[in-house]
Write a structure and sequence with these properties.
Number of helices: 5
Shape: globular
Radius of gyration: 26 Å
Number of strands: 6
Distance between the termini: 74 Å
Strand content: 15-25%
Strand order of the largest sheet: 2-1-3-4-5-6
CATH class of the domain at 3-143: Alpha Beta
Largest sheet: 6 strands, antiparallel
Amino acid sequence: MKLKKLVLQGYKTFASKTEFVFDDGITAVVGPNGSGKSNVADAVRWVLGEQSYSTLRGKKTTDMIFAGSQKRARAGMAQATLTLDNSDGWLPIEYAEVEISRRAYRSGENEYLLNGQKVRRMDISDLLAKAGLAEQTYTIIGQGLIDQALSLKADERRALFEEAGQAITRANAPAPCANCKKPKPTCCASTTFWARFGRALPRSSGRPAVPKATNKW
């Protein structure tokens, strides 16, 4: 996945429209404590559909919206837009750039947009899943996560590696059937095949076939 741009407006500490452009190589966001550096990583999680507010360092939807300051009134809406480079077609959609947006209102309502068109959160999740970027198949390393991982006990560290292994397995799993969403070996296509042709096939008794004796010489 290649990130090209992240645009925030009204999200947490970013009251004004703020644009982050990710060029080739490593991009570093530098600033003093409390300037909102961690909010950039939170915004990436949020726009990709994160539902756990504790992970986003909040308690409710309104915590994602700029709360106001002494010189500026609070915002009524938060929006984050993540632009992905799709020039190599890693996403199954006919656009060289894909914009994923999420909006939050003080009423608690959330909206999702794909290239400016309103969609469901499920539509975003399905699109990313088809490209191997489903939920729990990626990790955004946040503040203190490295220290936390290094200080784990042996059994806790083992659980962490097992979780990572399961994420890799899910990412490499074949795409489900487009009709019934089940894995293809047990999907509706195989069920339909046996329903149509199963009766015509000989049934096995469970015992090996024994050749009949003949008197032909």
